[in-house]
Amino acid sequence: MKANGILFFSVAFALGWSLYFGGVLFMYVVWRPLQQDISPSHTAVICSLMGKKFKWIAGGSLILCGIGYIGLLNSVGSLGGISNLARQDQVRFSTTWGLIGGAILVSLLSLNMIMGHILHPNSHSKLKLRVRKDNPDLLRKRKLAAIKRMDIALKVELILSFCATVLLAWATARGR
Amino acid sequence: MTQTWVSVIASFLHLVAVAVYVGGSVAMEFVMSPAQKYVPPSQAQVIGQKSADRFLILVWSALALFPISGGLLFFSLSDQNVVNGTKFFTTDYGRTLFAMIFLWFVLVINGSLITFVYRPKLRQKVSSQRQGQDFSRTQKEMQKAAQIVSWITRIDLVIAVFIVLLGASMAYGSGLL
What we know:
The structure holds 2 protein chains of 2 kinds.
Chain A: H1 2-34, H2 40-76, H3 95-123, H4 129-134, H5 136-173
Chain B: H1 2-36, H2 41-76, H3 87-90, H4 92-123, H5 133-171
Helix pairs in contact in B: 1-2, 1-5, 2-4, 4-5
């Protein structure tokens, strides 16, 4: 029974992380450079639709990952020390490392919610016709500022994801 | 000490490769492709081609990284003692590893089919001089190729998720099969 639980949590953890991290990498390596080859109006349409969908996929993946993470730590207290193989050097995930991993997951989930629900919609916001007539530059300025904030948030997300993957690699390869 | 770093780096590369393949495929198939329907077809075709070109580079990099990082991880963790000789087929760990290698070959074959057979069909241009039967035949070929590519991508995704299941069972247990 315990072995089944461990398998379920480990798959949830691995799948959740792969979906999230792979999606973020895709956005950064494929979608963002591609925007330079598309007209701004079409970019806006596709970007807005993708953002609406991806925030749920990313959020769901992170929650799945979190369930797997908590489940694994609760079941075995370790991300690497449950193998039946005779690995002498399995180092267990101590509380400190467990907390650091948990903090990164919570930070990524918060960042994903801020990006998906505030920053990204702001970069596609529209002004009322009356306001647009009074101040034609306002929308452009707002959008540029929103895009800049989104850019910074994306970079932070990418750096945090890489740190989490390094930590995970360390835990999986050696356990701690 | 060196062995530790080799296994950490190998593990990192393996995780990145899996994420790129699984997460990238989901983003491509379920996030980007549906959004393309909301722009004019000519523009959607350009976006589809350019995104697929970029994504295929990622896919092939990931497929190349799997055996390299997996092999490094395998030997740096001294797992060869666990699956040497007949143990490759008689232990859970060995059978799971064998299944992963087999499925990797399936992914490579499917990737080759998309890259070298169906993608060139999708890229062919229909000239204005080719009209009538010729034009409709080319268009039908392209539609069929697009449908097949979509099916193969979804099959690959299912295989990749199963590989994640097998990999997780090896990383946090002693294998599944």
